[in-house]
C-alpha cells in the first residue's frame, strides 16, 4: 500500500483522549523493545514517525497514527521489561484493559514477537488476553534479518507451538531492517480495514 499521509493524532493515556474519528483501527502489542514502533515506521516508510530506541520502554502512551485518512495505527507501550515497578505494571495493565475492552473500531491486533526466541510467558498471556476479547490476531515474527535462512521455518514452528496459534490466526515473518514481509502485512491489514 502506498502511504501518502501519516500523522500522529494523539498520545493518549485514557479513554477520554482517544480520537473520535469513525475509522477502523489496527493496534500493536508486544514486549518492550521487540520492534513495534520500528514495524510501524517500516510499513509507512517513515524513518522516525514512531519514536524507537535501543532501550526498552520508549513508548509509554497509546499513540494513534492516522494513515492515508483511512485507518488508525495504535502503537502501544511494551510489556515484560523486568525493571518496571509494580505500580507502573498495574498502570500499564489498566491502560491496556481500558483500551482493548472499549474500542469498538478495533479490527485486528498485530502482535509482534522476536523470531529468534520462543515467545515468553508474557507473550502467551497477551495472546490469551486478546483472544478473550475475540480480537483477530496477526502474529509478526520480526528481526528476521537476525537469523540464518535455514532456521526460519523451525523458529516459525516454535512460535506457532508455544502460542498455540489457531487456524484463523495469521503468522508473518518480517524485518524492519530489510523490509521483508511488508507486502504480506499490508495484504493482511487491508483485508481488515475494508
Ligand atoms: P518499546 O516502545 O520500548 O516497547 O519498544 P518497541 O517495541 O517499539 O521497539 P523499537 O521499535 O523501539 O525497537 C527496539 C530496537 O530494536 C531498536 O534498536 C530497533 O532498531 C531494533 N529493531 C526493531 N526491528 C528490527 C528488525 O527487524 N531488525 C533489526 N535488526 N533490529 C530491529
Ligand atoms: Mg515503541
TrEMBL record:
Residues 22-194 form the EngB-type G domain. Transmembrane segments: none annotated. Keywords: Cell cycle, Cell division, GTP-binding, Magnesium, Metal-binding, Nucleotide-binding, Septation. SUPFAM superfamilies: P-loop containing nucleoside triphosphate hydrolases. The keyword Nucleotide-binding applies. Its cofactor is Mg(2+). It comes from the Bacteria. PROSITE patterns: G_ENGB (PS51706). Belongs to the TRAFAC class TrmE-Era-EngA-EngB-Septin-like GTPase superfamily. EngB GTPase family. Necessary for normal cell division and for the maintenance of normal septation. This is Probable GTP-binding protein EngB.
Amino acid at each position: 500500500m502506498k502511504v501518502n499521509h501519516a500523522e500522529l493524532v494523539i498520545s493518549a493515556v485514557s479513554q477520554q483522549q482517544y480520537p473520535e474519528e469513525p475509522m477502523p483501527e489496527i493496534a500493536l502489542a508486544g514486549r518492550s523493545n521487540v520492534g513495534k514502533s520500528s514495524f510501524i515506521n517500516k510499513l509507512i516508510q517513515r524513518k522516525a514517525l514512531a519514536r524507537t530506541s535501543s532501550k526498552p520502554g520508549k513508548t509509554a502512551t497509546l499513540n494513534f497514527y492516522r494513515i492515508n485518512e483511512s485507518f488508525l495505527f495504535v502503537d502501544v507501550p511494551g510489556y515484560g521489561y523486568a525493571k518496571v515497578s509494580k505500580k507502573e505494571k498495574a498502570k500499564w495493565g489498566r491502560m491496556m484493559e481500558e483500551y482493548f475492552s472499549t474500542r469498538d473500531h478495533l479490527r485486528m491486533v498485530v502482535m509482534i514477537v522476536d523470531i529468534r526466541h520462543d515467545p515468553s510467558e508474557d507473550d502467551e498471556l497477551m495472546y490469551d488476553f486478546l483472544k478473550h476479547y475475540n480480537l483477530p490476531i496477526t502474529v509478526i515474527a520480526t528481526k528476521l534479518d537476525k537469523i540464518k535462512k535455514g532456521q526460519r521455518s523451525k523458529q516459525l514452528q516454535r512460535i506457532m507451538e508455544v502460542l498455540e496459534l489457531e487456524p484463523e490466526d495469521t503468522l508473518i515473518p518480517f524485518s524492519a531492517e530489510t523490509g521483508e514481509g511488508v507486502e504480506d502485512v499490508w495484504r493482511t491489514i487491508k483485508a481488515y480495514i475494508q
